[in-house]
Design a protein that fits this description.
14% strand, 8-stranded parallel barrel, 283 residues, homodimer, 8 strands, alpha/beta, 11 helices
């Protein structure tokens, strides 16, 4: 375990090497589709998924929308899920896609990253409001030894609507967002990886090389593998700064692996291990 | 009271005329700066603010970050605040700036707008992920008779970083976001106002005329009056489609009006009424 105060990038790099995995386990619980052994309890479902697939993963990524939908009990389930993941030695990347200005940004950062809040290890944030809206998140993250993942080039078709627009001065909107990410982060001394990372969809691997050029020190959070059509084999550019330079996130392909046969926990464990080995072989 | 199933724009227009106000009361409670009579209780503070300033307002706008920061008790305070505002005849615009894709977007929309969720009347959302990320919010809003306010051109200096970028094809990023807002909404039959509105900062009134050209049916949510430097007198273009075409939101200038003298409730009431009269005189 790295000492307290270690920057996020360095913590992550140590953990990726120790656990030999770059896989992030997405937790998007749907009360209508929980594992049978959870008996209808969202937190129990998440615990079971973590117990099954966690050993092949370096982090969990709870989709906050799925918990928030459930109101107060959902918030409690999120707290319990985070505690269980941490006890299992996993980092917690809160997928909340928050974004706001000054005091409100600080409040969100405190909610997710600060002592007395959810104390996640990282938070996803949106850059539409500009650098001054991300700065309070970065300050709070650094103070907590935590990280950010800024939405840069997402995995959905609608990413083309604003992110891919060509600018009069050259480049695209998402490349400008990448520039903000690069200037906002401070590379960790041991790993060279910054605490400000980027969400770069695995569904458009043609952007990965350019994203890596623009953000040499950023950890890439790579959604879109599996159900959305992305392939692990296309992600090699993400790992240029080291094995912790890319985190491959998967939710449905692990949690619902048993739909192709087998018992939920065993199927999830096997699929997570398959993804782990495929990504590890690249870097 | 308009009949159930009335679209958001039509509901809003009826309420603005009935209450003779376009003012939205921002609720950004800070546990360190609550009104003395609240005795340290966030929900009690919000109730007192609503009781004081609500009569001059058409809606409240809880800043969700401020409640989320407080964890489970904060979520409960948000529920109580929403119930109190509704009982006072006010609409509730949840300022959460959410944004995500497909299922996650639906979950956020359900959390804030659907029966069994917080049942707010409207939600602020971010457009960075594109039109397909906003569509699930719009579908959920229509089903609930609720509205959306999409971040288009925000009130902070960082708005220039991405929103103001000039595009190779002409126009700016925020003008493209405005185009998405315009195509996503459906004007109400009675008011001509759509359920998909736009956040347009009052700090850059030079953009208001252009924003109105691009979004003829959108309700503009106008932050930035007072503490951020915007002036009510500059907002006239927002009201072109009618008095409910612009909603002037203010938080600090109302809640902390007593810092210039007087008792908190009386000072808040007077400041809200001053803003109400200034905006009403424009349209």
């Amino acid at each position: 375990v790295p000492p307290a105060g270690t920057p996020f990038g360095d913590r992550l790099a140590v953990l990726v090497e120790a656990r030999e995995t770059q896989i992030v386990l997405g937790l998007d619980p749907d009360p209508a589709k929980l594992w049978p052994q959870a008996d209808g309890d969202v937190a129990a479902h998440c615990r079971a998924v973590i117990d099954a697939a966690g050993p092949a993963c370096v982090a969990v990524k709870p989709q906050v929308a799925c918990f928030e939908r459930l109101g107060v009990p959902g918030w409690q389930a999120l707290e319990q899920t985070i505690a269980h993941a941490r006890a299992a030695g996993l980092l917690v990347l809160a997928d909340a896609k928050r974004g706001d200005i000054d005091i409100s940004a600080r409040r969100y950062a405190e909610a997710f990253l600060a002592p007395g809040g959810l104390e996640a290890d990282a938070l996803t944030v949106s850059p539409y409001l500009g650098a001054d809206s991300l700065e309070p998140f970065a300050v709070a993250a650094r103070a907590a030894g935590a990280g950010l993942f800024v939405l840069v080039r997402t995995s959905n078709p609608g990413a083309a609507d604003l992110q891919d627009l060509e600018l009069a001065g050259g480049g695209t909107v998402w490349e400008r967002a990448a520039g903000i990410v690069d200037s906002l982060g401070e590379p960790g001394a041991a790993s060279g990886l910054s605490e400000v990372g980027a969400v770069v969809g695995a569904t458009a691997p043609e952007h990965l090389v350019r994203a890596r050029e623009l953000m040499g020190h950023a950890v890439f959070l790579l959604p879109g593998i599996g159900a959305q059509g992305g392939r692990v084999e296309d992600l090699a550019p993400a790992f240029a700064p080291g094995r912790a330079g890319g985190l491959v996130t998967s939710s449905r392909s692990i949690v619902f692996a048993h739909e192709k046969g087998g018992e939920p926990a065993a199927a999830a464990r096997a699929e997570a291990e398959r993804l782990r080995a495929a990504a590890w072989a690249l870097a």
